[in-house]
Amino acid sequence: MIYVLLFIILMVIIFWFIISRFGSSSLIKDINEDVSAVNYIPKQFLTNNEYDFLTKFIDLEDELHINIVPQVNLASIIQKVSNSRFNTELFRNIDFGIFSADYSKVLLLIELNDESHNNFHRKKRDIKFMKYAIKRELN
Question: What is the predicted pLDDT for the residue at 26?
Answer without folding.
Answer: 58
